[in-house]
Amino acid sequence: MNIRIESAQVGEIELSPVLPSSLQPLQIPDTIGYGAVGPFGHVLMQQMEGEGITAIYHSLYFTQADQIIYSSEEPAIRLQIILRNSYSYNSIHLGKGILHERGISLSYVPTVNTSLKIRPGETYSHLSIYYQKKHLLSLQSSFPTLIPFLAKISVDQPAVFSGSYTIADAAILFVVENILGCTYSGHVRELYIHYLCTELLLLSLIRISSDTPSAGAINEEDAYRIYKAKELLLRGMSSYVSLPSLAEETGLSIYKLNHGFKAIYGIGATEFLHEARMKMAHQSLSETDMTIGDIAKAIGYSHPHAFGLAFKKYFGYTPAFVQRSGRTALFILSFIVFLIPFS
Predict the structure, then answer these.
(1) Looking at the structure, do residues 84 and 192 belong to the same domain, yes or no?
(2) Could you tell me if residue 198 is inside a domain?
(3) ∠ at Cα 125 (219, 6), nearest 5°?
(4) Spatial separation of the C-alpha atoms in residues 42 and 66, rounded to whole Å
(5) Is 340 part of any domain?
(6) Quick one: pLDDT at residue 162?
């Protein structure tokens, strides 16, 4: 995918395949990187190929408020998953909209031309997966709502699959983590990325097609207060967090705090903290030699037994199982590759 990026402040940003030294620590191994660094900040795009499917991980940081335009003359069937910050966009084909963290969207545009409003001193990141029409055609019998979407693609008409706002669930985020954390190389890597992107498409179609109730819209300013609350929660995982004090520190009422978390993440503030604690514990169990007791204490549990019960309820297996099995065995248990033949 040949993408051009233009800034309202500095003009076209020339992306180089030779990454500046400051961006090299951010590069995912075995990806094709394109980046630029300057007084404006930095832009980094990392491309992964999967046998007819292209995944691009975007990371942006600007020192001043700006507006950038993504453009490409190529048509795009594109699944987007927002990983950090809120994307307030204006597409010449799809109009205005906003996607917050964990927001997902599947769309088609004949050409890419989308402007994004950038706040200063903020990091933005998202994953875009570019599919071919055949990948969707093989799924239309299982998802009849794909039929009108594909009909618009056939006549080169812009389209969004489902108009309702959709939040990525844990299964989708798990696959995204595996795409970005893929350690394979060569043809095995290409096959693996292909299967992960195929699974991601299937999970996203299920999620977008479901009748999951929405918590309603949230404006951009309140969204940034929620992001501040999120950072405070993540920094305080080892201790008790009071929702009233968190609400006061972020300038929100308790109602707005919980409403904001549900609007962005699909869960309340307490549930978000629990999810973050469980994920941190899982990572520590699989990647470090810390004891279960030390991990429990690090995420705010005073008793390992209570932590063990909560962990098993969340994941379906015990902390000891993770330690015994190691990352490889657990990966085989937890991850299912959906093999979908494409003609």
Answers:
(1) yes
(2) yes
(3) 90
(4) 12
(5) no
(6) 85
Q: How many other CB atoms sit within 10 Å of the CB of residue 47?
A: 17
Residue with tokens 């962990």: 311
List strand residue ranges (DSSP E) for 86-218, in order. 87-91, 95-99, 103-109, 112-118, 122-131, 159-160, 166-167
204: phi then psi, degrees, rounded to nearest 5: -70, -40
pLDDT of 308 higher than 70: yes
CATH number of the domain to which 288 belongs: 1.10.10.60
Query: Domain boundary residue among 172, 187, 209?
Result: 209
Contact criterion met (CB below 8 Å) for 129 and 53: yes
Domain CATH number, residue 200: 2.60.120.280
- Name residue 323's amino acid: Q
> Are residues 203 and 234 part of one domain?
no
Do residues 193 and 239 share a domain?
no
pLDDT digits (tens, 9 = 90+) for 100-129: 999 999 999 999 999 999 999 999 999 999
Provide the token pair at 4: 């051009």
Predicted TM-score of the model (pTM): 0.89
CA-CA distance, 19 to 121, in Å (whole number)? Answer: 21
Phi, psi of 332 (to 5 degrees): -65, -40
Sign of CA dihedral 172, 78, 31, 99: negative
> Integer distance in angstroms from the first to the last C-alpha of the chain?
22
Choosing from 184, 209, 234, the residue where a domain stops is 209
Q: Report long-range pairs for 96-99 (Cβ below 8 Å, ≥24 apart).
A: 98/220, 99/126
Burial of 232 (0-12, 13-18, 19+ CB in 10 A): middle
Residue with the two structure tokens 């657990």:
330
What dihedral do alpha carbons 236, 240, 246, 248 form, nearest 10°? -130
The token pair at 46 is 């990392």
